[in-house]
Design brief:
The complex is a heterodimer of chains A (258) and B (302). Chain A has 258 residues and is an alpha/beta fold. Chain A contains four helices and 16 strands. The N and C termini of chain A lie far apart (36 Å). With 302 residues, chain B is of the alpha/beta class. Helix content of chain B is 32%, strand content 21%. In chain B, strand 1 and strand 2 form a beta hairpin. Classes of the chains: A alpha/beta (258), B alpha/beta (302). Chains A and B meet through loops of A and strand 5, strand 6 and helix 8 of B.
Chain lengths: 258, 302
Amino acid sequence: MTQILDFKVRSIERLSGAYALLKLSPCAGSLPEGIAPGQFVQVRIEDSPSTYLRRPISVCMADYDAGELWLLVRNAGAGTKRMVEAKEGDVFNIVMPLGHGFSLEKREGSILLVGGGVGVAPLLYLGKALKANGMKPEFALGARSSADLLLLDEFSKYGPVHLTTEDGSLGEKGFIINHSRFSEEISHIACCGPTPMMKAVAKIAKQRGISCEVSLENVMACGLGACLCCVEDTADEGNVCVCKEGPVFNANRLKWEL
Amino acid sequence: MGTLSVDIAGLRLQNPVLTASGTFGYGEEFEDLMDVNSLGGIIVKGTTLHPRQGNPSVRMAETPSGMLNAVGLQNKGVDYFIEHIYPRITQKFSTEIIVNVAGSCVADYEAVCEKLAPLDRIRAVEINISCPNVKQGGMAFGTTCQGAAEVTKAVRKAWPKTLIMKLSPNVTSITDIAKAVEAEGADSVSLINTLMGMAVDVKRRKAVLSTITGGLSGPCVKPVALRMVWQTAKAVSIPVIGLGGISSTEDALEFIMAGATAVQVGTASFVEPRTAEMIAHGLADYCRDNGLSSISEIRGII
């Protein structure tokens, strides 16, 4: 059930470049039950004259042992800047959890979690959940350079991590879809990152008959399915809200020309 | 009548707080987060004769203290509303449910009103003659006295219950428009709808919205909305419903003092989903703290 809660920043780790990992827990009570991988939250930004709306951020991890929500944030503007520059003890009001997440259905064979840039965020929680459910997640993460490859130690807790960088500073050189792992067996793909990357991955999945989920990032206002600002065109239902029907979609539901 | 009870031409609301069309879905989207039944009423999404897909992305641009939207009246049409949504929400909610009606020609408005007329739980419609995003019809009607009067006259015949005309602020004289719709039998006017605005993405060297221009809403429009409500309340005898940037009890009180009988909360619900409920409680507190036996005691005192 969606709730509106004040969360306190318990720790904030400034990562390379413009990224930060915030770990937050509710000011009162415990972390709400039932947060699913692929869901997101809406964070209220205070004291920011140029921003008004909440910021939608993927759930990077719901750590029920520690009672903490992890948000991996990239400084992309005034709203996310406020989050990246937060201090321990800062309070953020958050509407959560929102959206329809990744499928956790039992599958045989390998599940490849493909991510780019800050898009890797929801794949961490997904990897943990898949492993806990007895499946075999592997991560394929790509970035421009090694500075943009995030949380690698965390990912490696849940499965093998395959890396690419465009400049070759870490892992194989090139785009993630060119990684040698893609030439091997894949039973299902879950993907989150820049749209061109997701389209390239979806195209490969389509060609090889691999089921593929993508996580979209349309510009949002309410995040509740009421305002209809964030819609994406689907083959079966026309325009649907990314915040409600998504952000995770089966790639074949979208009207992407692949 | 309770302290907060208000009457819009026979439509009794338990309190003056409504939620604005297009900002509250059909109420269900908010039911986990707040008590929808604590409101005076909800005004559901603009409903058209035929289903509408709405505009292409991008439909939204944030602005300081507000946002621009170019949603384009996406909805599944009146038949779908009557068959699927109406039975469900009337079962869930006891609060007043008002349907906002949009159209691209006079006949469409009439047809939608005729279809809604038999629904017992819909005691009022709000006619949208002012949506600035629709390329044909909508905008044109609300910007002239003749256009506004023509729609009012036609729906007045088709709709026997409370008729609210929602006015566009993108006009030279809001009071002229208000008087024109009053003369054709409107029971009430609600204002303002969104102000026409635009945003440019300098990096991409393109307009942000797919339709280039869109409707501005949020706290940034409040001074304009308040001024128009004040002017209109002085110009007509029918009840005025005020909206435009209302985010707090204090904002609502400003509109009531300026002459509004009821208020609508719109964009604020995106930032704080409980806003409308908080304002309903806030108005009750205000009356108690100021010894008012009725909210009407401060209506139109400016």
